[in-house]
Amino acid sequence: MRKPFVAGNWKMSTDSHSSVALAEAIVADVSDAAGQRVDVAVFPPFLYLQAVCKAFNSSHIALGAQDIYFEQNGAFTGEISASMVKEIGCTYALCGHSERRHVIGEGDELVNRKVVAALSGGLLPILCVGELIKERQSSKTSEVVTRQTKAGLAGLSAEKVSGVTIAYEPVWAIGTGLTATPQQAQEAHAMIRNLVVEMYDEKLGEEIRILYGGSVKPGNAAELMAERDIDGLLVGGASLKAEDFLAIIRAAA
Ligand code: PEP
User: Fold this and answer.
1) Helix axes 218-225 and 242-252, enclosed angle (nearest 10)
2) What span, in angstroms and rounded, lies between the C-alpha atoms of 51 and 27?
3) Cβ count near 111 (within 10 Å)
4) What number of other Cβ atoms are within 10 A of residue 60's Cβ?
5) What parts of the chain have a pLDDT lower than 50?
6) Region at 131 (left for phi over 0; alpha for psi -120 to 50; beta for the rest)
7) How many helices (H) and strands (E) does the chain have?
8) Is 169 a residue of the active site?
9) Beta-strand (E) ranges in the chain?
10) Which of 99, 131, 169, 189 is catalytic?
């Protein structure tokens, strides 16, 4: 059985005060929301990771970095390494989020180096994949998602990939209010799971968690989670309101 996993990506949307206030509001109710039945993680802006970590204290909520650089240290102005975020309490790192790919311009090869660096640095990467609207409209969803998944996991053994979570996030659904239907999401998730079976083996395919992301809200979380291959949710906008994020966690439990 795959344990449900709900992750909140705060992007560049909180400041020091609101980061701590949001963390405190989540931690105050998370056990009621899910007990230990759901893995929960949040991804605050880098600057506030330590303050959020302190606010979470000994709760079971994990912390993640929204990105990392693939080198460990050195002359890489402005970058932050896996070991740096690990040292201040991160468990996870997002790799290849659609805004990194399509706003900042990261390609598959760079995303792969980040996944590898996260694992080598003791973090659990969440590899994000997903098609643009024009790719869906020209029936290229499967081709794009297959390419991104294969490239993202390139060179990794099954043992290493057991530490990876994949997030299917159709770019047209992120921050737009449009959500993939449960059927569209399930189709993509099943395709990714079959790909993992082909690339590795049945066991890893059954074990790997695949999250859906793209305008998840309290009102659509349960129907998405009801699909066989949807193991959790990566939430952007709705993770910025504690009561919405908690309702989504409840729906996943
Ligand atoms: C995301 O940032 O990964 C995301 C899915 O955002 P939203 O929920 O706002 O669409």
Assistant:
1) 20
2) 13
3) 24
4) 15
5) none
6) beta
7) 12, 8
8) yes
9) 5-9, 39-43, 62-65, 92-95, 124-129, 165-168, 210-213, 232-235
10) 169
**Ligand 1 atom closest to the CA of 94, numbered from 1:** 3
Residues whose CB falls within 8 Å of the CB of residue 34, separated by 6 or more in sequence, listed in order:
6, 40, 249, 250, 252, 253
What single-letter DSSP state applies at residue 100? Answer: I
Q: What is the pLDDT of residue 156?
A: 98
State which amino acid sits at residue 216: V
For residue 35, the model assigns a pLDDT of: 76
DSSP string across 130-184:
---HHHHHTT-HHHHHHHHHHHHTTT--HHHHTT-EEEE--GGGTTSS----HHH
The whole-number pLDDT of residue 7 equals 98
Question: Is the CB of 215 within 6 Å of ligand 1?
Answer: yes
Q: Which of 79, 98, 81, 77 lies closest to 90, judged by CA?
A: 81
